[in-house]
């Protein structure tokens, strides 16, 4: 069993929490080493290893640092059996996670507040909507409340935390109730915290703690 140190910001969502959850489910030998925004910026300023320069989270496995949240989540998903061994099911999981990553990274920015608002509204009605349509289609095809097959995978966690970010207003100019247009995604949002593994995790590590 590798020795793992996981660093993210002290947030119970976004790009980090799915990885913590999967490491916990795996019973991995890991420690959480959250950093504040300022600690991370200071680390970047002094650190030569470029794996630390690509944004958080960063995972250290047996002394070596790795970047990219989805690579880390796939690794934790393999340890926890929350990433399917079947290649086609694994591709379906990857597809959903990459669509979520696109939704996050393609979200327009602009230094001008008015232009940013217009661009974001266009995004929510256009490209982002079509990616949400695809995620909802996949839930419909799975025959369950989950993205792939009949049980929880790491794809569900990524979709769940993306939906949570929208709900919490972290997508500026995208309404908090945006997700309600897709009953399949609103259904997944309900099903994930009710899954026995997720329930047990939140009982052990309550969000307010
Ligand atoms: N492609 C990266 C993106 C990471 C990323 O942008 N992380 C954000 C937080 S969710 C961050 O650390 N931003 C601050 C910075 O890059 O200095 C991944 O998925 O790991």
From TrEMBL:
<feature type="domain" description="GST C-terminal">
    <location>
        <begin position="86"/>
        <end position="209"/>
    </location>
</feature>
<dbReference type="InterPro" id="IPR036282">
    <property type="entry name" value="Glutathione-S-Trfase_C_sf"/>
</dbReference>
<dbReference type="Pfam" id="PF14497">
    <property type="entry name" value="GST_C_3"/>
</dbReference>
<dbReference type="InterPro" id="IPR010987">
    <property type="entry name" value="Glutathione-S-Trfase_C-like"/>
</dbReference>
<dbReference type="InterPro" id="IPR004045">
    <property type="entry name" value="Glutathione_S-Trfase_N"/>
</dbReference>
<dbReference type="InterPro" id="IPR004046">
    <property type="entry name" value="GST_C"/>
</dbReference>
<feature type="domain" description="GST N-terminal">
    <location>
        <begin position="2"/>
        <end position="84"/>
    </location>
</feature>
<dbReference type="GO" id="GO:0006749">
    <property type="term" value="P:glutathione metabolic process"/>
</dbReference>
<protein>
    <recommendedName>
        <fullName>Glutathione transferase</fullName>
    </recommendedName>
</protein>
<dbReference type="GO" id="GO:0004364">
    <property type="term" value="F:glutathione transferase activity"/>
</dbReference>
<dbReference type="InterPro" id="IPR036249">
    <property type="entry name" value="Thioredoxin-like_sf"/>
</dbReference>
<dbReference type="InterPro" id="IPR050213">
    <property type="entry name" value="GST_superfamily"/>
</dbReference>
């Amino acid at each position: 069993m590798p020795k793992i140190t996981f660093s993210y910001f002290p947030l119970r969502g976004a790009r980090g929490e799915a990885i913590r959850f999967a490491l916990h489910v795996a019973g991995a030998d890991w420690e959480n080493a959250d950093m504040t925004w300022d600690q991370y910026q200071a680390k970047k300023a002094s650190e030569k290893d470029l794996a630390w320069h690509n944004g958080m989270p960063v995972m250290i496995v047996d002394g070596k640092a790795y970047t990219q949240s989805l690579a880390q989540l796939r690794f934790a998903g393999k340890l926890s059996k929350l990433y399917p061994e079947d290649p086609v099911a694994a591709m379906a999981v990857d597809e959903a996670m990459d669509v979520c990553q696109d939704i996050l990274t393609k979200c327009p920015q602009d230094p001008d507040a008015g232009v940013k608002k217009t661009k974001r509204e266009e995004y929510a009605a256009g490209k982002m909507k079509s990616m949400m349509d695809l995620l909802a289609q996949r839930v419909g095809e799975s025959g369950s409340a989950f993205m792939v097959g009949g049980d929880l995978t790491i794809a569900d966690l990524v979709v769940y935390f993306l939906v949570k970010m929208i709900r919490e207003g972290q997508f500026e100019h995208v309404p908090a109730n945006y997700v309600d247009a897709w009953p399949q995604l609103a259904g997944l949002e309900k099903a994930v915290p009710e899954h026995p593994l997720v329930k047990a995790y939140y009982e052990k590590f309550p969000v307010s703690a």
